[in-house]
Write a structure and sequence with these properties.
By secondary structure, this protein is α+β, with helices and mostly antiparallel strands. The chain has a domain of about 250 residues: Rossmann fold (3-Layer(aba) Sandwich). An 8-stranded mixed beta sheet has the order 30-31-34-33-35-36-37-38, sandwiched between helices. A 4-stranded antiparallel beta sheet has the order 2-3-4-5, with no helix packed on it. The chain is globular.
């Protein structure tokens, strides 16, 4: 029987247990002639990331890494692909992975204990490896290496490319060096060439990179005749791959959109399927891929436009992708089977959680899909699932920005007549990232209780071309904040949100925007910051090497533009901070250290503003443990309930709210 109850008080099937039970994070699938491998991040095991494999034609994955091993690299702190697999016809397969605890590379064969093949570091995680690629004979690995001279000083971090003997018989040998960063080390099918992407401060990889190629000597003894293939300080080149016949392909945004190119012998690159769509994504993590080069010359790719992912097939001789209706709204990490007609990816939709999917391409370009593994064992009845509606809304300066709007949805309840829902403006991290249009229980948790959610792709987000991405250049804390405010006001004006019950939350960069909204505006009645930046100047001085010059493009070079940093750092304007906040922080966070959270908490305390502070031992940047994920959702709902004066249907453990007597004052 449908009941009438105020928004925010509905009983929801998305319980706290359901947020973390029977759920894993799926990433980096790898296709071999006989198996599909991927990694699973498991909240139930303290966030451990396990490597598993599925024999083709089978239904039960096999665990490759035993308990006690965590397949996760921390290169650039964000990590990325950390696994490589060697297939030996008639013999079997050997996997190699970076282990989180010590960051050494281990060799493992199913059923055997992992064996380290890189030396023990001088202190924990002093030497890290990522994006490994095997030579054809399986005797060596080429990988990105990151060495830390002092665990607390980004200036002592050195990145290069090394050669590693897979039998562990010798220490890693330096192969390529001289730039600040490296990624996408790739070997040609015949083993004679290698390519790589590099870039230097102050650029981030989506600002400007260079693609290099050289002759690879036997056993990776060296690289001769290195030449620049594409890229520069104002062109982002990413995701190089060799086709089976040896043609080098890459993604570049030289046209204003991350499109696919084929390198030409005389230099330059030939665009393969020009379009206003983005094959590239910001390379916060290493080893991402948006296309696969199949054995017959066909290209299978995914790109983003209008806030959604698309799949397409580019057949030999064609100059445009044929769009495939696979039923997915989000596709990522596409990897092809060597010389095969199929690929694997992580894909999902509004009703399908992120899943490992196999895609078989027929000779006529038809694509058959098969789901190999889901991130969730069960999925809610679609009647409870709020689906994302891409919306465009007017923002400052006569511009238009974008968001994904999720309406409250629960078939068991209706609101009192005339009531409009409270709205949570969700601010993604990055800030050069994007909201993902895929089933996410962290969103359904709110919508099934009667909250609306706006996942804002503010100016600076990826997926809308380089010009949109560069709206944030020099304007962080201005453009993103204006877009979040305008999104909230637009939804209130169009009757999809209650103008008096606007909330905002976000993590990392999204946490910064949340803190700015609480400090510089009075639009929102409350907010939640997960590891948000409070003092941009301190962030520059304390953060890790990868992002240590990120602020140069977002604010301006430090310390030359110190006045801009001060003007846009919430901690210097605490006299204006009057919005109640709940602050969440991992105490081992190296990206946004705990001191940032403590600065804003001190300001809230001094101002007498209602606030709660929840800090987690053993958590880094982003929470991985089941108990942390549960507690965060529970505490945030409790906090909003107290601020809004509503009583959620859940039996919630209270969170301590300082200055609680001032709520509503």
């Amino acid at each position: 029987m449908v009941r009438t109850s105020p928004y925010g008080t509905w009983e929801s099937p998305v319980t706290l247990d359901r947020l973390v039970e029977d759920v894993v994070g799926l990433s980096f699938p790898i296709a071999t002639p006989t198996h599909v491998y991927w990694t699973e991040a498991r909240p139930s095991e303290g966030g451990r990331q396990a490597l598993v494999r599925l024999p083709l034609g089978d239904v039960e994955p096999q665990e490759v890494t035993p308990p006690g091993f965590n397949a996760r690299t921390t290169v650039h702190e964000y990590g990325g692909r950390c696994v490589a697999v060697h297939h030996e016809p008639g013999i079997g397969e050997t996997a190699y992975f970076s282990n989180f605890a010590d960051q050494r590379i281990y060799r493992v064969e199913p059923g055997d204990a992992p064996v380290p093949i890189t030396p023990e570091p001088p202190f924990p995680r002093a030497v890290r490896y990522a994006a490994p690629v095997l030579t054809n004979d399986g005797r060596h690995i080429l990988a990105v290496r990151e060495r830390h001279g002092d665990p607390d000083l980004p200036s002592t971090v050195v990145n290069d490319v090394v050669v590693i003997a897979t039998d562990g018989s010798e220490p890693p040998r330096g192969l390529i060096s001289g730039h600040d960063f490296y990624s996408f080390v790739t070997i040609s099918p015949d083993g004679s060439r290698a390519c790589w992407v590099s870039w230097d401060h102050p650029n981030m990889p989506w600002d400007g990179t260079e693609l290099w190629e050289g002759e690879l000597e036997v056993d990776g003894a060296g690289v001769r005749g290195a030449r620049l293939v594409a890229g520069g300080p104002y062109e982002s080149v990413t995701q190089p791959q060799y086709s089976p016949e040896g043609t080098l392909h890459y993604v570049s945004d030289r046209s204003g959109w991350w499109n696919l190119y084929a390198a030409e012998p005389g230099g330059g690159g030939r665009p393969l399927a020009p379009m206003e769509g983005e094959l590239g994504v910001p390379d916060f993590v290493l080893g991402l891929s948006s296309y696969a080069l199949l054995g017959d010359g066909t290209v299978l790719a995914t790109w983003r436009s209008a806030g959604l992912s698309h799949i397409g097939v580019l057949q030999p001789g064609s100059n445009a992708f044929s769009v495939v209706d696979g039923g997915f709204t989000h596709v990522a990490q596409l990897q092809g089977a060597e010389n095969g007609s199929w690929a694997v990816a992580v894909a999902g939709s509004a009703t399908l959680p992120p899943s490992v999917v196999r895609m078989e391409v027929s000779a006529d370009g038809h694509v058959e899909t098969e789901i190999l593994a889901r991130s969730r064992a069960d999925v809610l009845d679609a009647a409870y699932l709020s689906t994302p509606e891409p919306i465009d809304f007017p923002t400052e300066g006569g511009e238009v920005s974008h968001a994904l709007y999720y309406a409250p949805k629960n078939p068991d309840f209706v609101p009192p007549k005339g009531e409009r829902p409270p709205l949570i403006v969700s601010v993604h991290g990055g800030p050069t990232s994007a909201a993902q249009p895929v089933l996410n229980y962290a969103i359904q948790y709110w919508t099934s209780r009667g909250f609306a959610v706006a996942d804002v792709n503010y100016g600076g987000s990826s997926g809308y071309g380089r010009a949109y991405r560069e709206r944030l250049r020099g304007q962080w804390g201005v453009v993103d904040l204006a877009d979040c405010v305008c999104a909230a006001r637009h939804l209130a004006a169009t009757g999809r949100a209650d103008a008096d019950r606007l909330l905002i939350h976000g993590g990392s960069a999204g946490g910064y925007t949340t803190l700015c909204a609480a400090t510089f505006t009075d639009v929102f009645v409350a907010g939640a910051s997960y590891a948000g930046v409070a003092d941009a100047a301190v962030f520059v001085e304390e953060t890790h090497k990868f992002e240590s010059h990120y602020m140069d493009s977002l604010f301006g070079p430090w310390p030359e533009t110190a006045d801009v940093y001060r003007a846009r750092s919430p901690v210097f304007h605490t006299e204006s901070l009057r919005t109640p906040l709940i602050v969440f922080q991992g105490l081992e966070d190296k990206v946004v250290p705990p001191a940032q959270a403590e600065l804003i908490v001190a300001a809230l305390r001094a101002n007498g503003v209602p606030y709660a502070y929840v800090a987690y031992e053993g958590e880094q940047h982003g929470f991985r443990k089941a108990e942390s994920i549960r507690r965060t959702a529970e505490a945030e709902l409790y906090f909003y309930g107290r601020i809004l004066g509503i009583v959620p249907a859940d039996d919630l453990r209270p969170v301590a709210i300082a200055h609680e007597d001032r709520i509503g004052v």
